Amino acid sequence: GTLDINRRDEIGQLAKSFQTMVHKLDENDRIRKEFISDVSHDFQSPLLNIKGYAELLMNSDLAEQERTSYAKVIQNETERLSSLTKQLLLLTSLDQLTAPLEVKLFRLDVQLKEIIRRNRWLLEEKGMSLTMDIDEVEFRGDPAFLEKVWENLLSNALKYTENDGLIDIDLVKEKDHAVISFRDNGIGIEDKELTRVFDRFYRADDSRTQEIGGTGLGLSIVQQVVRLHGGMVEVVSNKGIGTTFVVKLPTM
Ligand code: ADP
């Protein structure tokens, strides 16, 4: 009678929630596997380059110029490995909240300009133009973490924009906020992927298929650090036209 029906209902519901759970687990599993394969690839390719160029360097009759250029590859690849490792460690520490903010009073505009200066050679290498409009802003926050935010946003704008593209960086001082925006005219992000780009390990289809290197960790670090400062980050994008990330940080 009714009992049986209820039973069947319960079992039906149980089966359904198992299905949802398994689906979620599958999805997590898929994301994790993809992540491991991305990270392995990210470690593997610089390691192979280092090994290859180190072998070339052992050849004694190299011209001075060749030797320097091989050594430079090794240096760059080592830096890539080190930044990847740092990114993974930073994310872990943000995660476990073992890294409380070290708050200091500093000039946000000076920090932004310094990061732009540091990346000049990359911009030049890609033939990119950069415009900026930067207000003077005194800010209370963790400079080391915030530096990571600007670095990640700038490196994305560079990575996901074709050669000769445009990047615009603005810092606007509002009454009780600092508004920082990074705009590019790069590959853009599909609407349906927009909400997911801040997810850990998430990479839009294009970035994977076009084999642009990355881990999908950069924007989740951006979001976590901004949130830890009581701020928020938003993205606006048009496929094939460009992307703008806007960070809003409270200044009081
Ligand atoms: P990563 O760049 O290492 O893949 P991120 O977390 O920094 O990871 O970014 C997640 C994804 O968001 C990227 O893989 C890319 O698909 C997309 N994305 C981020 N920034 C941009 C941008 N400026 N233009 C287009 N796509 C972007």
TrEMBL record:
Record keyword Zinc-finger present: no
Keywords: ATP-binding, Cell membrane, Kinase, Membrane, Nucleotide-binding, Phosphoprotein, Transferase, Transmembrane, Transmembrane helix, Two-component regulatory system, Virulence
EC number(s) recorded for this UniProt protein: 2.7.13.3
Domain Histidine kinase span(s) in chain numbering: 38-252
Subcellular location: Cell membrane
GO molecular function terms attached to this record: ATP binding
Domain of life: Bacteria
Record has Transferase as a keyword: yes
Broad EC category: transferase
Record membrane topology: Multi-pass membrane protein
Reaction catalysis annotation: ATP + protein L-histidine = ADP + protein N-phospho-L-histidine
Biological function: Member of the two-component regulatory system HssS/HssR involved in intracellular heme homeostasis and tempering of staphylococcal virulence. HssS functions as a heme sensor histidine kinase which is autophosphorylated at a histidine residue and transfers its phosphate group to an aspartate residue of HssR. HssR/HssS activates the expression of hrtAB, an efflux pump, in response to extracellular heme, hemin, hemoglobin or blood.
Name assigned to this protein: Heme sensor protein HssS
Residues of the full protein shown: 208 to 459 of 459
